[in-house]
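Researcher: I've been going back and forth with a colleague about how Acyl-CoA dehydrogenase might be arranged in three dimensions. Neither of us has a model we trust, so I'd like an independent prediction. The organism is Venatoribacter cucullus, in case that matters for your notes. Sequence below.
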Amino acid sequence: MAQDIQGVGLRLASRFAGSRWAEKYGLRKPVERIAYLSTRAGFRFAGKLLQKRQQPDPTPGERLPNSREKQLFDLSLTDEQQMIKDSVRAYASDIVRGLAHDANEACALPDTYLQDAMALGLNLFAVPESMGGAASGYSPTTSAIIAEELAWGDLSLAFATLAPVAVANALVRWGTQQQQQRWLPLWLGEQPVQAAIAVQEQHPLFSADKLRCSATSQRKGFTLNGEKTLVPLGGKAQLYLVAAHYHGKPRLFIVPADTAGLSFAAQPAMGLRAAATGTLTLDNVKLDHNALLGGEHSDFHYRDFLDLGQLHWCALATGTCQAALDYLIPYCNEREAFGEPISHRQSVAFMLANMAIELESMRLLTWRAAALAEQGKAFHREAYLAHILCADKAMEIGTNAVQLLGGHGFTKEHPAERWYRDLRVLGCINSGLHL
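Model: Here is an independent structure prediction for Acyl-CoA dehydrogenase. You can compare it with whatever you and your colleague have in mind.
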């Protein structure tokens, strides 16, 4: 329509401007000017008219409501979780990272490490408010976040820090009222409590469902015999949770460290060296009737216990892999070879990108399984998938971290070789922790 109006105007202007009347009275220029202005105005009017006709009706049509408005998949942290995450990351950055190298070399915890770690309040978060602690609810997801941030500083030191918290988590999750009242006050004292879970055994092809450590009933309680390996804290623990075969199935027993027949021998491993791991031997260890976690007729579920432990390791691996990626990106951007940063090479850039992708996968699977556990839903499948992925990709990321640093990655000049050794544990350890 606008083009038609403009065409008519131009034709009229051309015809009149070329006539003898326009030439005789000197009207050619004014007429051309009027025609031009008229056609331009007509074009604008027609354009607006067409635009108005083409605009859709602004009234919204029918909209379906969200079917799961209150249950949307949302990974946003709560304000409390974000505060905890930031606090633990700051502690890992300022304290843990600087202690990791020397602790690894000494195969022992720094003298005041556990005392200093009490400032984080992790012990209080493991004990219910009704018993004087700060835990207002069961939250494996929050525990996974804490583990991830601590492991960003160092996996081995994080393991030592969280070993006592894991015991408290198990007591709160499965313990009887009498067991909780007797043992949980240890976590509320001014001195750091040292406790550990002992599941792993030394025999080949070890399966956490087929324990050689055994427990038998006695008139006054139980008798335990067996060996456990990769037990942390260098024999200084005050309390152990020991997995043993009892009445045809695995169960956990609360074993005070001063019990006769219990001994510890240091046995540094390939990784986890700062956690001072070793072998725990039980030789006719006598326990009373209250030593069986949850009692004879409890709701204790050994598979859930193992799955929560494996998720704890997944969170630790995720934090360590995040540390590796955060370390490698600036290194590859600053390290130059052949006149340019090595990150300009596609082989390096793609390797870093894949590390970031796998890292996000590890985190999401771990959080998903922990969230299901937190809701009281079945989570074994998700925990198994998370552990399989983390055990595989953590080793891949650890290997690539060493490779990207070149020959330096094999030396202790950089922490990559320590990350590599620590991450290897995911493929061979069974529980020992508890979200």
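Researcher: What would you highlight for our discussion?
Model: I'd start with this: The chain is about 50% helix and 15% strand. After that, consider the following. The two ends are 73 Å apart (CA to CA).
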